Amino acid sequence: MKRTIKDFIFEKSLLFLALLTLAGLAGIVWFLFKEGMPVLDTISLKHFLTGHDWYPTEDPPSFGIFPLIIGSVSVTLLAAVMAIPLGILCAIYLSEIASSRLRSIFKPFIELLAAMPSVVIGFVGMTVLAPFLQDYFGAPTGLNVLNAAILLALMAVPTICTISEDALRSVPRSLKESSLALGATHWETLTTVTVPAAFSGIATGVMLGLSRVIGETMVVLMVAGGAALIPESL
Question: Does the pTM of the predicted model rise above 0.90?
């Protein structure tokens, strides 16, 4: 009876905290819509979504977010192309190939990368990566889509790698041993048994990693030029 009461209190406490979190999120969304909706009194929704000019401080102001959308999508897709394979392959190496000593060294280092502040990463992109890209590609400036995508990929890889590695290591050892006992090679076991069994965890890691990429503002603002223009090249 006493245990049942404790379980009931614990369950209801978690429910309350979950609802409180959702209420806070709903409040943020409501505040953003409340403060932003008056803009549609002066311009149409179509112009807001498809307009190419973003000059909110002019008189009259111009609110066209189409270049902002295209820039965000471009940076996100390019970062995903780099981060997803790198993060998953790194997780496979740490969980299936690396020795326990190497894993104990590299795993904390990768997790530490996930805690790096956005401002620090953006500063490195401005002072180190931007001059390199400008000199190597002969570009007019190193503050571009490629610079932002590389840094965003660097921010996403630790999350993807850490969660995917945990998912791979949680696959029952009996599945791997059964595959090997049937004559499959280590590579065949990895590709046909281990990775499919851990797919849901890997997919979760990818989604969380890309969520940070999509929601990142500071790095993109610092290293992508800070202009509301549709990118014509990397």
Answer: no
